[in-house]
Amino acid sequence: MMDGADAALRARPLIEVSGVGKTYPGGTEALQGIDLAVQEGEFLSLLGPSGCGKSTLLRMIAGLAAPSAGRIDWPGATLDAAGRPDHSVGFVFQEPTLMPWATVFENVYLPLRLAGHRRRAVASRVQEAIDNVGLGAFARAYPRQLSGGMRMRVSIARAMVMHPKLLLMDEPFAALDEITRMRLNDDLLRLWAAGGWTVIFVTHSVYESAYLSRRIAVMGTRPGRIREIIAVDVPYPRDEAFRTSPAYNEICRRTSAALRAAMAGTEDIG
Question: Residue 142 pLDDT > 50, yes or no?
Fold first, then answer.
């Protein structure tokens, strides 16, 4: 898997963020001078304290908000059937945001229905997405019948079913217990390897970012800026042996030091 990912990392970026800033009405400056290139097939984490603008940056990449300064380009995007750049994006929020009155199947089918696809024509595609997150036996269940981790799996399946070029994840596992979180981290890496997406993952967790990522962009306090980018030069797949390895401990140590320095506003954070 990493041969293909390494080749992608040498290609032109899928997304290029250049000098991006965000100032809200009233003068609050959330982001300042963000420069970031995200390569196709990459798993990149945005790591930083609360309020540093991680989610704001994610929403701007998704097109849900506009930057006040700078620009976001897709130089590596392929063209769709109409000759326009393919900006297909899946978004997984902190909360699953499922329709409580609808089954798992109907929740996953929702984006396809909104795109005009008939239920019968895409039923196998919806079921495949549900199967891929390990919920094949729960297609007819309702959200109230599922655990928190299972509801988050439904949310991931709903994002996956559109076959996005880019998957944006805003602290999706933050509210889950540690055991469930680790299991979902493993499942996410498996799905990423199989699906070939590009992932931008927002987290507060040093340990989660070190386990999942190809690179970690460490952000400082508001106005948010990227203070350091840490490469995680460990091949995939990753498993429990990696979690207990000296390499993982060293990456966590470096990332923790970078985060502390970023929060302190130190420029030289080696």
Answer: yes
Q: How far is CA 104 from CA 46, 191, 247, in A?
A: 30, 19, 39
In the chain the domains, ranked by start, together with CATH numbers, are 2-88+165-264 (3.40.50.300), 96-163 (no CATH)
Q: How far is residue 229 from each of residues 79, 84, 188, 243, 244, measured CA to CA in Å?
A: 30, 31, 22, 21, 23
Phi and psi angles of residue 6, each rounded to the nearest 5 degrees, phi first: -65, -40
For 180-227, how does the pLDDT look when each residue is reduced to its tens digit (9 = 90+)? 999 999 999 999 999 889 999 999 999 999 999 999 999 998 888 999
Q: Do the beta carbons of residue 5 and residue 198 sit within 8 Å?
A: no
* pLDDT tens by residue, 215-257: 999 999 888 899 999 999 999 999 999 999 999 999 999 999 9
The strand pairing partners of 127, in sequence order, are none
State whether residue 216 is helix, strand or coil: strand
| Dist. CA 48–CA 51, nearest whole Å | 8
